[in-house]
Design brief:
Length: about 525
Amino acid sequence: MKRLLATTAIATLVAVPALAVELTVGASNIAPYLDPGRDHSNVGSQFYHNTFDTLIAKNLDSDKTEWLPGLAVSWELVEPTVMELKLREGVTFHNGEDMTADDVVFSLNRMYQATFPPYQVRARDRLANFEKAEKVDDHTVRIHAKRAEPLWETLLNLQQVMIIPEDYTKALAGDPKVAENDDYEAFSLKPVGTGPYKIATFTPGEQVVYERFDGFWGDKAPLDRVTVKRMPETASRITALKTGEADIITNVAPDQLSLIDGDPNLKTVGAATALFHVMIMNVNHPKLTDPRIRQAMSLAIDRDTLNEALWLGKAVVPASHTMQEFGELYMPELETFEYNPEKAKELLEEAGYDGFEVTFDTDAVYYTNGLLAAQAIMEMWAEVGIKGKVQVGEKWTGNAPELMARNWSNPMYFADPFGSFGVMWAPNGPSESEGRFNTDEAYAKIWERFRYSSDVAERKAAYGELMDRIKADPPVLPLYRPYESWAMRKDINWAPKPGNIPYVLDFRAGSISFASN
């Protein structure tokens, strides 16, 4: 009888399926589209790592660079400007297609030889040195650069060159044999990759639902389903966490941490993010063409006080546009930005400032503490005699001729000065192309030395010269590296990995686990 009962019990246990492991994440924002090639926003960057893969991967458990095989199992330079990569076999896209060299060539050339306008922007600001990718055989490709490239692996690890399926993408709209702009627009609403989670549903600006992809080539995803919902207000996210509507929430301001940590069922994790919240200034606005006005706008801002008031001292205030993650290119000795209200007053008097109003644009919720920082900056400006006004709106105004100043961010897209300052402030980069920043031949020559030299000392010297230019004619002030926090149930073991770019919601194997009690 005991054996029968035992046998029956075992049979019953086998017959009951294991409970699905699901999570709900309350996020402050959801992207309006999902395409790793065109996106470089803080919001969008959260969502690609779970679904897409790069040719060259890296160890995300360390902020030191260690390259690992990804969709390519090996790579080597066969000429100074040509890299050959051997592709991983047995890789399947979420729609069931096998990944081959054709897909890799298509994915890379859609960026290197971009015709779709959003791709052209990304190609110009970080991929301009690449000429083309070509197929050698079904599992071998070659990538051609225009000149010797000191950052080969780095630029093949970018989100923008994650691999997508050629046939699927071309068939989304129009002629299935031709890649058209409408295909890329359609792909951004129905994305397909090779990662451990497929995107089951996507509601632009509202929700992303991941489901485990059992055909993934690597370690099995630990979760069956993850739903990321937009919850724009901090209070609503915290309430959702406390009531169980959400298991993890993003973008928790420091003054809310004690409220969460005081709950025995909840906890928080946080870090100074590899990203600068910045103030940008339109050097071409008729009222701001005199650099002394912009120098004064910058010198009037007490960033240490902002840090203490808004981030409880947890943010990092830089002396220059530099981060420790840059390794040998980290340059804390540079003194590009400072607080000097007396000098600000002198410069305003020298420039003949007549009390005109300087507007400062901000979204109410996009950046943690962004509106509060803008309001505090108005008070600091007033102390030196600048009349300021905060303008709140959801529309991006960085490309508007009437822009005077606003908040923005300069993320570390990869661990190099080019991957943060460089992407944003390169000749013909986003800042110049949007009409609020100017470069000249001298700037371009310094940039060339910084970008392409293989000598670290030469790159550092050139970067210092670029920072001198920024100090003399400022278009930007890095306010701080914000201390961003996430909150979650007590039993969830998750935190942002140090090797990821900012804000990535990483739910791959090894990135999340659950306590037994």
